[in-house]
Amino acid sequence: MGGPGSGKGTNCSRIVQEFGYVHLSAGDLLREEKASGSELADMINTYIKEGKIVPAEVTVRLLKQAMEKNLSDKFLVDGFPRDIDNLTCWEKEMTEFADVQFLLYLECPESIMTERLLERGKTSGRSDDNEESIKKRLVTYINSTKPIIDKFKAAGKVRTVDSNRSLDEVFGDVRLHFQSAISRN
Ligand code: ADP
Ligand code: AMP
Predict the structure, then answer these.
(1) Mind listing the pLDDT tens digit for each residue in 4-15?
(2) Mutational pocket test of ligand 1: of 14, 116, 165, the residue with most ligand atoms within 8 Å of the beta carbon
(3) Could you point out which of 12, 27, 81, 94 has its C-alpha 20 to 30 Å from the C-alpha of 57?
């Protein structure tokens, strides 16, 4: 977890390579559902462009289906839970199936996240990597997501990494958190 552009996708790819978790990005699952042209596509498209959080039932169902399709029992859930509804819905639907080890929080200043997203927007083709959507995504992040990270912090479940550093420095710390989580199991 972290703000938009904090490096979630980047670090998840490296965690997958090194530790063999299955990466499930809530944003990617929603974008796939949108691209499938299902009856939810238009609704998802609007939420993503506006930087708003898609209704929790939709996202949790997509995550659960993706987990059920997979033989692994080690999942890296990227970009979730993003608000209190996400968390409540996850607790209702998933508590009996999934044990949450910890929340990895990539901490990054808003100005740096904005710079990175504008740079990513030159090639990503994403409908939300533009100045207007980025502003809205940051507001959603501060108002809805940050309080959830704080809730996990209060429960002693957060590991924080300063992601305003080079890719290798950031992943160096991420790696340490995963190594210690794995050695504890
Ligand atoms: P998120 O999944 O949190 O939205 P990404 O992993 O896609 O973020 O990263 C956003 C952009 O910033 C990408 O273009 C990525 O290459 C770049 N990026 C990620 N981490 C770093 C870093 N530590 N330093 C510089 N650029 C980074
Ligand atoms: P991301 O790929 O993580 O940057 O997410 C892009 C967009 O997808 C967000 O701005 C939201 O509109 C939507 N989204 C991603 N994750 C979630 C989630 N957990 N719950 C609801 N909407 C989400």
Answers:
(1) 999 999 999 999
(2) 116
(3) 12
